[in-house]
């Protein structure tokens, strides 16, 4: 996985780096219709849903990568024009839905 190096340190002659993926980090989530919230899929269910999520990403011209720590998307997401700065609510998280399945 390609990463950008954020920090690096040498300890006892060994170089260690703290990096983060160059690609977009993503999470699989579901909408709870009773609470009208978006919830992360439990880690135990990610493997079960990964094939369908991969196919949904592929339909958008993206590649879903199951890297060691976090799922990432490779490809061009394009600009999200559905939300303007005026629509943002302080203290709330902004989520972009890339694909549904």
Lay out the secondary structure.
Elements: E1 3-11, E2 14-21, E3 24-26, E4 29-32, E5 37-40, H1 43-59, E6 63-66, E7 71-74
Antiparallel strand pairs: 1-2, 3-7, 4-5, 6-7
Question: Would you kindly provide a written description of the structure presented here, covering whatever features stand out?
Answer:
The protein has one helix at residues 43-59; strands at 3-11, 14-21, 24-26, 29-32, 37-40, 63-66, 71-74. The two termini are 26 Å apart. With 101 residues, the protein is α+β, with helices and mostly antiparallel strands. The radius of gyration is 17 Å and the shape is globular. The longest helix is centred in the middle third of the chain and has 17 residues, at 43-59. Strands 3-7-6 form a 3-stranded antiparallel β-sheet. A two-stranded antiparallel ribbon has the order 1-2. Strand 4 and strand 5 (37-40) form a beta hairpin.
């Amino acid at each position: 996985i390609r990463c950008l190096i954020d920090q690096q340190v040498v300890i006892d002659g060994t170089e260690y780096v703290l990096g983060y993926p160059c690609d977009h980090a993503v999470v699989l989530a579901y909408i709870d219709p009773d609470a009208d919230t978006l919830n992360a899929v439990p880690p135990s269910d990610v493997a079960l849903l990964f094939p369908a999520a991969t196919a949904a990403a592929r339909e958008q011209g993206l590649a879903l990568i199951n890297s060691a720590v976090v799922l990432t998307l490779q490809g061009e997401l394009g600009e999200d024009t559905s939300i303007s700065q005026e629509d943002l609510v302080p203290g709330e998280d902004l989520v972009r839905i890339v694909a549904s399945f």
